[in-house]
Amino acid sequence: MSTSLIDDAHFRPFHRKMFVLTAGGQFLDGYLLSIVGVVVLGMSQDLGMSASQEGMIGASALVGLFAGGLIFGRVTDRIGRQLLFTLHFVVIAAASVWSMFVDDPLLMVALRFVIGIALGADYAIGSALLSEWLPTAQRGRVMGMLIMAWFVGAATAYIVGYALISLLDSGAWRWALGSAAIPAVAFIVARIGTPESPRWLVSRGRVAEARTVLECVYGEEATPEAVASLVDQETAHGLGFAAVFRGDYLKRTAFVGLFWLLQIVPLFAIYTFGPTILTAFGISGSRDSVIGSALISVLFLAGCVPALRLIDTLGRRALIVWSFALMVVPLAVLGLLPTAPVAVVLTCFCAYALFSGGPSILEFIYPTELFPTEVRATAVGVGTAVSRIGAAVGTYLLPVGLDRIGVGSTMLIMAGITLLGFVLCLVLAPETRGRRLAEASGVADAEQPDTQRVGALGG
After folding, report:
1. CB < 8 Å & 24+ apart, contacts of 232-239
2. How many domains does the chain have?
């Protein structure tokens, strides 16, 4: 096998910088989606909102993520990653500031929808750009670490929200929603000048530009032979939007979208309405429930650590199958024991958070590894869209479910959704560990699940 300049490169400061810049989008996503759960009770009181309106505000950003991922994933594959890598953060900053002055629940729904569009665009843009720069040996771990930035953002939202509620009480929700503009502006400045993906440039026939970018990053290592090797890997095949819905790629699209959806529906509902759910279990007081949600956020982050160690030893397939199986258990216990002691409730939520690490880190690994450069951002966008429309429905219905059928039945429904995720992964999850990006994404590799990996699961 010939040497590949990008795939076989040593991990260097440039790669670390690209990770930090890309992780900024996930930090903001976690922050913006979680901060609503922290302040929704105070906002609801000030604006006189119904349970249905609370659900609409929680779901509107997720609907925006659907639209943003679906539209801008394809746009990114057409016009490039670098151009869009900064512009959508301007929208996030402006909408966050505007949210501080809202007095109409419907306007808040609209602003959250716009923020969601920008976040959905970042999913497709950032993950495609980062994956196309990473060496094979570090790709799984670094792409998996993106979701950790999401959890850091979520935990930060709970900390900031708690501090503002403690200091201001009345009107704290306005300052909390506006606070997202601060990291948004910081990353706008930091992302200026980010280089374009040489893989994308080659796939569009812009080989001279790709050579220039490679020389800026790798210096003398960007030899004519290295550039020629990249050209061989990234030869365009004329793939368009429809390609992700045909043949073996259709199976991959279904797998990515559905596993992401079946994981995200319960996870986002818990994140968005964590304080409300904990209150339903008898953990009263807005500050106490916010502290409990912050603890769960930290454990979601902690759950990613062992998953990152297992991603290249246990492998992608075994990790996701076992994770879904274990995630069912605490949700089922919460559903069957809705009047359990506080210690049991918190233990179950913490266990769910820890077990969710596997699917969480694979949200960015699988979509970028299973599709070629020509449609990589498109595929990430489609996966984001499928998962977020389901999450939006689940998030919208969660407060209604708590109100009408009770917390026990609501948790059992979440357990059932997670069980479906286990079955899906058992049937469709592929193994891409150790493969170069061009190899993992090629249609020739669209195989049935690795029989050795099935055997390791006792199948």
Report:
1. 233/4, 233/199, 233/202, 233/436, 233/438, 234/199, 234/202, 234/203, 234/373, 234/438, 235/203, 236/203, 236/204, 236/205, 236/374, 237/372, 237/374, 238/374, 239/372, 239/374, 239/375
2. 1
